Amino acid sequence: MISDKDLLSLFDARMRAAAVPDEPGARIEAADGVIRQVGATPRDWHGVLYSTLDAATAEAAIDSEIARFGALLGPGGEFEWKAYSHDRPADLAARLARAGFRPGAPETLFVAEITQLAAGLPSALPSALPPAPPPGVTLRPVTTASDADLVAEATEAAFGDGGQRARDRVLARLAADPDTVWTWVAMADGRPVSAARMLVHPGTGFASLWGGGTAPEWRGRGIYRSLVAHRMRLAAELGCEYLQVDATDDSRPILERLGFRALSVTTPYEYRF
After folding, report:
1. 8-state DSSP, 221
2. Residue ranges of the N-acetyltransferase domain (predicted)?
3. Prior bond of 202 cis (ω within 30°)
């Protein structure tokens, strides 16, 4: 097992500095100490993934990104600077706020080493990984456009919004990679109550987990844990070495029991034109 410091450095090097697009049609651009992702359409996610700035270069880089995305997206557009607590300069967050970015809810970056999973699970995990979803819940693979509607419904139930964007993302993924299942919906009482996806990042050894929010009346029953465990097994079967997820403090005990380690805190700084 590598140290937390080395694991964080590995994450930065492979998943941020050498990032690849995580949505169909998106592209990665690098310029002046900044790595950004530009979506294929205005509704896609656009933002800064990584930066190697210091006190002398940060201000100009921030202004440059605002100008770059402003010209690209126009009035009503928005982009995000995904900042981490270990990023430099140390006052990057304050600089973003002064430039007009608004911070969203912070989440903790968790990473698990899952190399051993492919060989039969680390000794600490067999009792923690549930063998199946909780009673009354089934995990449905997302393979059709109608399934995308279920993802949208589950997203709205869990978060109160974001359903259309989640649906568009699923449809784009299905069109680009129709033979692979990357998203699952948890069904209970005949309706979707949670949705979650996994991405594999070729050449990095990493897979990442997204979503997993659950409708309020179904929280606390093990659905999130089951979705994480399901994707954890699949990542191991695919030969991934590491599994990454950004999560709130509510999920922390679940993730730590499954072998994840907290490495940093990430905050989305959003800029709207």
Report:
1. S
2. 137-273
3. no
* 208 and 199 Cβ atoms separated by less than 8 Å: yes
**Cβ distance 258 to 228 under 8 Å?**
yes
Cα–Cα distance for residue pair 248/212, rounded to 1 Å: 11
71 class by beta-carbon count within 10 Å (0-12 exposed, 13-18 middle, 19+ buried)? exposed
CATH level 3 topology of 115-240: Aminopeptidase (3.40.630)
Nearest-Å Rg of the Cα atoms of the chain is 19
Residue 135 and residue 220: Cα distance in Å, rounded?
13
What residues contact residue 220 under an 8 Å CB cut-off, 6+ apart? none
Which residues, including other chains, have CB under 8 Å from residue 189's CB and lie 6 or more apart? 136
DSSP letters spanning 145-167: HHHHHHHHHHHHHHHSS-HHHHH
Query: Domain residues of the chain, as ranges?
Result: 4-108, 115-240
> pLDDT tens across 217-253, in order?
999 999 999 999 899 989 988 989 999 999 999 999 9
Confidence label for 133 from pLDDT (cuts 50, 70 and 90): confident
Whether the pLDDT of residue 118 is over 80: the answer is: no
Alpha carbons within 13 angstroms on the beta-carbon side of residue 250 total 9
* Nearest-angstrom CA–CA distance, 32 and 138: 48
13 CB-near residues (< 8 Å, 6+ apart): none
Cut 0.85: pTM above it: yes
